[in-house]
Write a structure and sequence with these properties.
heterodimer; A: 265 residues; 0% strand; B: 323 residues; alpha/beta; Rossmann fold; 2 domains; six-stranded mixed beta sheet; four-stranded antiparallel beta sheet; 12 helices; 38% helix; cell membrane (chain A); ABC_2_transport (chain A); transmembrane (chain A)
Amino acid sequence: MIARLQWGVYDTWTITRRDLITWVINPVRVVGELVFPIMFVLLFGYVFGSGMVVPGGGDYRDFLMPGIFAMTMAFGIGNTMTVVATDIERGVMDRFRSLPMAPSAIVAGRCSADMVNSFLGLLITIACGLVVGWSWHDGLLNALFAVLLLLLLRFACLWIGIYLGLIVGSPEAAGAIWGLLFPFTMVTSAFVAPELMPDWLGFLAEWNPLSSTVGAARELFGNVGAETGSSWIASNAVLMAAVWPLVITAIFLPLSVRRYQRLSR
Amino acid sequence: MGLAIVAEDLRKRYGDTVALDGLDLAVPEGTVCGLLGPNGAGKTTAVRVLATLLRMDSGRATVAGCDVTSDPRAVRAKIGLTSQHDAVDEALSGRRNLEMFGRLHHLSPAAARRRADELLERFGLSEAATRPAKKYSGGMRRRLDLAASFIRAPRVLFLDEPTTGQDPRNRNEVWDVVRSLVAEGTTVLLTTHYLDEADQLADSISVIDRGRVIASGTPAELKARVGGSQIDVVVAAESDLSVAASAVGFACGCTPSVDTAVRRVTAPAVEPVAALGAVLRGLEDVGVTAEDVALRRPTLDEVFLQLTGRPAESETSAEEVAA
């Protein structure tokens, strides 16, 4: 039993390592991870930002960065989904399943690799934020708590990604699905305060799980725009930034496991 | 000599589709068994069940002495699997791929590295060891994939259409590798819809159609079932085909098949030498010039046609896979 557990950890590390190696052997990947946040900071911070209004006043880039952090985490759905679907299509998943390794390590390895990747991606994005003048104003401890909540959101997105990746089974289809999901990651409080949207859209944006994480990050980083709106969901952002990801995980983790087991049916 | 693979009455259905309908198989150790059949016959399903990737609905199977259903982990430690995909991580180099699969076989990091180098050497990939697999040629990727299924020198190797979509040179390379593995005692279960591939590699062939084995034997035995030898007559002009066909038919005492595209008449000959003489005389009598007359063993294509009443559709299958 203990030997089995040890092999499970060893196998998980082997699969994680597979992904981490690509950071070392493929410097282009670091550039790729940099391009996305820089593009969004430039696009929203400078192009659209000049016309943006922050409720209660304040610097738009201060308002924007927590939104971009959360977006970076949500985009993880697309990454995870594509990697899982590619492994299935290329037969790599079948090869893993035909090896005497711990079967749980296939998913656990994916999980830890994506979490490490996202953590590195988040650090890069935070560095971008610091360059354009964003900072946290409410102590390091609160800032770390915000990072933790952002990673919790990524953890939830991971399971959505694994589930969808197992269903679609090819990277092309994963791309198409991501095209459909993408707008949902935009209807949030990340770029514009929901109270400035049409009522129905504002309602959707407020209840989007991403907005809770965005709101919580603003609050904990001490950035402007925290607690915009008077609704319950907006004023309980920190609580909901913990609840939403847990609910999503509670739904998609068992679904993913079931879907994975169905590969042998 | 023991049996490396035993399958008894394997059954598997997907909704209304019956993929395996009571498949039986017995493969002696150290031999190559070819599973031959058109697409959708159940070849791949059979391999996936035996390689523990798929659960069967009912039946019993052992691979290398281990039960597929009750002890899949023990089976996985003794098998290698190569499908028509190149199941390697394209971003990683050949060596990193083999090292990763070695570790997943629970070799120590040092042993995994050693084994990776051995396999790179053996499969002729040493010079490309540090290049990412996506930069490999199709043949190199195929060899890397074969090397990955050979980490632990498996007792049983499953090759699921290993040369589908490969050019003839790559195909020959794969065949050479398979032959050398078998020489070292590995048992191979090979699925293919290329009849010449089964003919080249297999000690025994099981012809599968609609999820069950409809014939099995050595390639020679299967060919003998079609009725000994075949006579091919190629005529110079297409207009001569019908006259030639009736002359050949008369000489062999049967209705020959005619392939207009290559101007060829083919008929089975029970008494080959006598029939050949009769065909030559018959053609001379009707005044038809033959470009070529040949006496040969039947191909597995003809075996398949005879057994199932339909051609093996090897061409269309290859296109489907490519698409």
